Amino acid sequence: MKLARKRDIIRSGTTVEQLVRAIADMIITGEMRPGERLDEISLANRFEVSRTPVREALGQLCAIGLVGRQPNKSAIVTNVTQQHLASMFEAMAELEGICARLSAERMTVDERRALEAEHKASARLVHRGAEEEYEAHNTEFHTRLYRGAHSNHITDLVSQTRARLAPFRRAQFRISGRLAKSYDEHDVIVTAILRADGAAAGQAAYAHVSFVSSASAVFASEPGKN
Question: Which pTM was predicted?
């Protein structure tokens, strides 16, 4: 990783958050392999930060499941299998389906208008192939669905699950044509919500996350392989 890129990572947001993102991306794309030792000093030197944010980032990556750590030993890259990833996405699909259904039933008029406006505005990002900007839109789009459900407990559950899947959901946009497909899938969800059709919205959201699961599976390891 080039020095300029390292500095961009640190400047673009909160240090710990950006370290989590950078290390997770390297794990997902195979730059860091399962079983590889993650030394705090080496990582601190690599990203030109102190060991404290590195330690915090590794802790968050452990919670996500991309990194493992035993007492008094260095952290290592774990092996995320396709089966484990599919299981997490299965839970995510169910939760997002619930959120979309409740959003169709409970969103206020202003919330529906805001969702529609943001969705339509994202079309220009698809046309430009702006992966990072669309990724930010995608996060906000799904957050609006969670808030629109008007259920704090469900929002907490789905947010926790999304945090564990965030690196894989982000990686899907590296696949050719995925931005346009994601937009089309969002469009079905939005249309159903605007019509207050809870059943259709729930089905569309479930299908959307299932498509994301299939697209993201390429970044997981096959059983028995490192």
Answer: 0.77
Q: Which domain holds residue 59?
A: 3-77
Same domain, yes or no, for 211 and 124? yes
Q: Do residues 221 and 160 lie in contact, with contact meaning Cβ atoms separated by under 8 Å?
A: no
Structure tokens at 143: 């957050």
- Identify the pLDDT of residue 11: 42
Q: Provide the terminal-to-terminal Cα distance of the chain, rounded to the nearest Å.
A: 22
Provide the 10 A C-beta neighbour count for residue 4.
Answer: 8
In angstroms, the CA 107 to CA 167 distance is: 29
Instruction: Kindly provide the residue ranges of all beta strands, DSSP E only, lying in 32-146, ordered along the sequence.
Output: 37-38, 67-68, 75-77
The structure tokens listed for 1 are 């990783």
Q: Which pLDDT tens digit goes with each residue over 69-110?
A: 877 788 999 887 788 888 889 999 999 999 999 999 999 999
pLDDT for res 105: 98
Residue 115 and residue 167 share a domain: yes
